[in-house]
Write a structure and sequence with these properties.
alpha+beta; Helix Hairpins; D-amino Acid Aminotransferase, Chain A, domain 1; OB fold (Dihydrolipoamide Acetyltransferase, E2P); 5 domains; five-stranded mixed sheet; 24 helices; 24 strands; binds 2-(butylsulfanyl)adenosine
């Protein structure tokens, strides 16, 4: 007979299990056997099944949930997630310090130096101490809700400890994989015939996007928290904030990886120490992050574009390796541009095996005098694709000769074009199979229509066999057509047809992305979808409408307008719709009937009746936008008590300054 537990005993058991998790995961020193742990876990599950209403949100059973759901829901960050500006030298770092001094008009400024973890950013929202959700960075404003996956990371507390817990805080951190876990994961993938991940960062980001939390749990993700979203920290400095994060039970960097510096010299000392320690670290970093320690100054310093002025990354030089170029091949891109690629003797570099490196273009090959058979240095830093940096001329084989771009397209044989003043060589044949394959592959890719089972090899065959020539043809494929593909049997045919069918219902953002418009990547596609609301509106955008969208520049606006002007493109879109592709409407969050609609606000000083977040929410709900810094584009500066430099800037630029009183009146 099983023991019947009282509620009090249940709560005790939860606390006991949290302790065991800590011993096991944080200290790596379990005090009970795995078997005993499993037994207790079963007990916990049993009680919770009996009394679902007892289940505490912090119970370890809540880390892995059961059924996977398709896709992720997007949610808005309370405070946008920004990126960091990069510096690559002591001079650039010194320039940044100079700017900070000038803007703050202060002599003594201190800094917090941290590791720049090479993973993927995450934002954790805690309300009354409970984990509410975890969002990826997404486009900075909205991210994917990956809460279920984050809960598989044992060191993420479901409930914060301690008494000084604010009502609501948005904690920022980095999800990453240790090098050991990364290597084991890749070895396993290769055993199973799956493509290995290029680096730990991609593996971490990919793992976060898995649909089944049980699979995510196997990836053994890790996390480090390094900040509380702007204006929310209960502490006055960044260093205190990190201590605070640790004190409430969140995982933070080890103390030796956080330094308090008072000038460039101090910062540099930390950078040098970390650079030395780098090769012994259990995880990858791509530099250090330097932040102004005083959090009030963050507000004063504000934001430029997507990066704050209060912090900067100092990136380490990329890692290098030496290897031989066995061949130089030429790839035909989506737009016909020919890209030479070095086929390398495989070499291990910065956590992954490299066998190809882009050579960019013919000019680059000529400038560096790269030839087939050369021993070369390749480098790979952070997010860049491996590239060839230099040739070791002493090791050059005698028989080698300079490389020349082929005169004919390696795929279709058309004479290659090279316009004066352009570096690119192009295959001018729009019917070129190489281009077609790339376009189709791009259309079907994960970031666009996300058609599973439609990899490069499949696309190549579809084009070769004349089954598909433009993207809309994908939606005419049937069993008979697919049975012509090599190795395609009943099951694979069914799978591909099902994926194609599933892609018919897509978001507007994916659809826009899939069109392959120049300069339009995921973020821009999302912006456009948000702004347009539906396809019809998008198709009617004029260049000036596009320019008015915050985040879309001139080049991009022009490229989109050109694309939408082209009859062939519009016909192809019609064909897609005709074949049942139906990009969903984006919920138009914004109201258009309020005086705030379309207006850009900047907040400064302390408001008597609202927190900054509450005021921002009120503005956004009414269709307005909130920006971190004052510019000519700002419509209103809402000034509370003790306004900062934003107030002066607004005056200088003649931006309308409104009081809290006026703001309250305007609300309704
Ligand atoms: S602070 C305002 N601190 O680097 C931006 N970021 O390149 C706040 N990162 O998106 C970021 N380690 O994902 C900060 N100690 C650290 C970091 C860190 C890694 C990542 C983060 C950010 C990216 C920017």
């Amino acid at each position: 007979m099983k023991k019947v537990l009282s509620r009090q005993q249940y709560i005790q058991l939860v606390e006991e299990m949290i302790e065991h998790d800590k011993h096991y995961y944080d200290e790596c020193k379990p005090v009970i056997s795995d078997r005993e742990y499993d037994r207790l876990m079963h007990e916990l599950l049993r009680v919770e099944k009996q009394h679902p209403d007892w289940t505490l949100p912090e119970s370890p059973t809540q880390r892995v949930s059961e059924a996977p759901t398709k896709g992720f829901v997007q949610k808005e960050h309370l405070v946008p997630m920004l990126s960091l500006a990069n510096t690559y030298s002591q001079e650039e770092l010194s320039d940044w310090i100079g700017r900070v001094h000038k803007l703050l008009e202060k002599k003594a400024i201190d800094y917090c130096c941290e590791l720049k973890m090479d993973g993927t950013a995450i934002s954790l929202l805690y309300e009354k101490g409970h984990l509410v959700h975890a969002l990826t960075r997404g486009n900075g404003r909205k991210g994917d809700d990956v809460t279920r996956n984050i809960k598989t990371i044992p060191s993420v507390p479901l409930k914060l400890k301690g008494v000084h817990i604010p009502e609501r805080i948005e904690v920022r951190g980095e999800v990453f994989l240790s090098l050991a876990t990364f290597r084991a994961l890749n070895a396993q993938r290769e055993d199973e015939g799956q493509e290995p991940f290029a680096n730990p960062r991609n593996a971490a980001a990919g793992s976060l996007k898995l649909l089944d939390p049980k699979e995510v749990a196997k990836r053994k993700l890790n996390i480090v928290c390094y900040a509380i979203a702007e204006g929310q920290s209960p502490k006055a400095t960044q260093i205190e904030t990190i201590h605070y994060l640790k004190s409430v039970g969140l995982p933070t960097s080890k103390p030796e990886f956080v330094a308090h510096a008072h000038n460039l010299e101090g910062i540099w000392k930390f950078a040098e120490k970390i650079l030395k320690a780098r090769e012994h670290l259990a995880f990858e970093i791509d530099g250090i992050v330097v932040k102004v320690n005083d959090l009030r100054a963050h507000d004063t310093l504000g934001v430029t574009g997507k990066t704050p002025r209060y912090a900067v990354a100092y990136k380490f030089a990329p890692e290098e390796a030496e290897t031989r170029i066995n061949d130089i091949t030429v790839q035909v891109g989506r737009t016909g541009v020919l890209t030479p690629v070095a086929e390398l003797e495989p070499v291990f570099l910065a956590g992954s095996t490299i066998s190809r490196a882009t050579l960019h273009n013919a000019d680059e090959i000529e400038r560096k005098d790269i030839r087939i058979g050369d021993m070369v240095t390749i480098e790979k830093g952070g997010d860049v694709i491996p590239k060839v940096v230099k040739v070791d001329f002493r090791k050059r084989p005698k028989s080698s000769h300079p490389w020349k771009m082929p005169r004919e397209c390696p795929v279709c044989g058309t004479k290659v074009e090279h316009r004066d003043g352009e570096v690119a060589f192009r295959c001018p044949n729009p019917k070129c199979e190489g281009q077609r394959v790339r376009r189709l592959f791009y259309f079907a890719s994960k970031h666009a229509m996300d058609i599973d089972h439609m990899g490069e090899k499949v696309v190549e065959q579809l084009v070769e066999k004349g089954l598909v020539s433009r993207v809309s043809d994908i939606y005419t494929l049937d069993e008979a057509a697919l049975s012509q593909l090599e190795g395609f049997k009943e099951k694979s045919i069914h799978n591909l047809l099902a994926s194609i069918d599933a892609s018919r219902k897509c978001t507007l953002a994916r659809f826009i992305m899939a069109l392959g418009i120049k300069y339009v990547g995921t973020e821009t596609a999302e912006l456009l979808a948000d702004e347009a609301g539906d396809l019809d509106h998008f198709l009617h955008f004029k260049e000036e409408d596009l320019l008015a969208i915050d985040g879309i520049g001139e080049k991009t606006a022009q490229a989109i307008a050109e694309y939408l002007h082209d009859k062939d493109n519009l016909h192809e879109i019609k064909r897609l719709l005709h074949h049942g592709v139906s990009p969903g409407k984006t919920e138009k969050r914004k109201r258009t009937d309020h005086a705030f609609s379309g207006k850009i606000f900047v907040l400064t000083g302390t408001l008597a009746h609202y927190t900054r977040d509450a005021a921002s929410d009120l503005i956004k709900e009414r269709g307005g936008k909130v920006s971190g810094s004052v510019s000519k584009k700002t419509d209103y500066v809402l000034a509370g008590e003790d306004p900062g430099s934003k107030y002066d800037k607004a005056k200088e630029l003649g931006v309308s300054i409104i009081s809290e009183e006026k703001f309250r009146k305007m609300l309704d």
